[in-house]
Amino acid sequence: MTLLEFADVSFRYPDGSVGLNACSLAIAQGSRNALVGANGSGKTTLFQHGNGLLRPQSGVVRYAGKTLDYSRGGLRELRSKVGLVFQNPDHQLFSASVQEDVSFGPINLGLDEATVRQRVTDALRAVGMLDCASKAVHNLSFGQKKRVCIAGVLAMEPELLILDEPMAGLDHAMRTELSAVLDGQQARGITLLLATHDIDFAYRWADQIHVMIAGRCSASLPSAELEEFEQRHNALSDAGLPLPSVLTLHRQLVAQGVLPNQASPRSHAELLDRLANKENH
Predict the structure, then answer these.
(1) How is residue 10 annotated by DSSP?
(2) For the chain, which terminus, N or C, has the lower number of CB atoms within 10 Å?
(3) Can you tell me whether residue 45 is helix, strand or coil?
(4) CA neighbours within 13 Å on the CB side: how many for 88?
């Protein structure tokens, strides 16, 4: 089932710059999706249309098969189902304490106090920030702030979680922790859509990769088919993106006869396992 759909969506900003240009893209329910492309390719603009922050000047955005309703009530319902996490957490956090910030959304849904409290607890636990509930937001690290932003969205119990460059500014350990958080949400049935410049992460993590060029989705494909698709269509190179490094390395190992020409690995860990198994045999 298609959960979120953009059909020929176009949008220009007041200064005349193109945000989206007849962009079409479909997000399947329960899937993990990576949106890749250069800066200015339209990723953030697309996300803001998905959450109703921006409205198409032409084309249509649909959620669960229905065209978005841009009335106050329609947008409130949409944002209870589609959560958006901005790239910069300081653009999303505005309460004094962690608990207050995560409580904001559920309170505005009109939920009772006990339900709000439980949602906040569950959301903070999901991102590993329960022990920081009483901390002041301004005392948190950048990575902690990002996790609190995600918790604030999770407390709304969305069906679709959209994250704009969630890995930006995080060190390796923080990226690993955040990946685990995302995997946990997908295991709960939440559909995930994120933007990233890290093509290795996109290839390893996502079910589907969507390539943005100049405000348009130029390609949508299963991650497992990326190498074959790239050979035929140059989707990544046209977007100024490299091939995932594991694919480049795998090609070299096959060319040198070190590994047989089998299906390409999705991660360096998988490639190392193949090398270890070959040595053991």
Answers:
(1) E
(2) C
(3) helix
(4) 3
